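Predict structure. Chain length: 380.
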Amino acid sequence: MLKKIFCIGKKHPIFVILTIAFLVRLMFAAFSNERGYEYEHFLYIEMPNAWIDNAEYQSDTYSYNKPKGISLFYLSLNYAWIAVLKFLGINSLTWLTFFSRLLHALLSLFVISFGYRITELMSNKRTASMVAMTLAFLYIIPYSSIHNTPYFVCIAFLMYSTLIILRQEINRYGSKSVNVHRTSFLIAGFFLGLAFSICYSVIPYIVGIILTLMLCKNVKNALITLLGFLVSISIALVIPDLLVWGKPFTELKAYIETIPQLTLSANQLWISLTSIILFLLILIPPFSIMLLCGFFNKWKSKLLLFLPTLLSILYNILHYSEMSYMIPIIPVFIILGIIGWKDIKDNSTFWQKNNVLHKILIGFSIVINFVILLSMLMYK
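Prediction complete.
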């Protein structure tokens, strides 16, 4: 039996990784704190549940009587599946929360799969397996993936769009043709629009994708991608806002009004530096330091992923202090970091001579990660 599992794992590593990743997320869904991100829980579980029951949701902490800059598209998706579950006779808020987490857990498996496929296109299967394992088990990802937070839900759409465009760009350079499956760019743009409709703060990543296509002299396909994006948001952002507020883009306008004004003061620069340090601490040093070095290694050869991620990091650390805004770019940062660090390690005489030290550093990060992972499961 174990031999058969080992053979399957060797031939199809992504299948084994996805299976174990789902089991980890299932445990988080079953045993984690009931509310998790409390604000999102209110918006995307309790409130649509009350609406379906034709009741006004009452809360001492939260209210929703005016536009707050949230995603009504994502709220509508939650409204739809909650309505289906309640039609099937599932009315308990606890069970609705559990099924919500289960759906989000399944969606997060696509993030792992897309990460594996993107890395395989850019590197090889072994590196792709390393990326998939990191996306599967790095504590912050399974924890965030099961909660009702648009910052994580949008990632699958971003990565699918990136995968489509990356594949087409590789084909374009390989065939020396600028007319490689232009409908793929339209589809990619549509999914970028869905990602934006779920989480507005991913706009720097989308701008970076389109800008990179233009820099790579693929202007026509950049415009096609933009067209797909505009078609997508004209559906996903207009219809829900019309139904709730009677005007299109009402929530988007409210979000824009909440964006902090950019000030390059000493205090803001200190906050930005603190945000970078906190980001690296969350990803667990020394592993996170390796990722940072790998991220910048040979960045020109990875421009399609590098520029959107860099713009997202700069935008978020200069405008916000909350780490939740950084969640959408963590998977792509990990992909670039692992690919880049592997190249550094393979071409460094220091690391070739000190391979044991490298294993110790990685092992230390793995131990810390699983201690945090287990503590999050054990203590609600």
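Summary: The chain has a mean pLDDT of 88.
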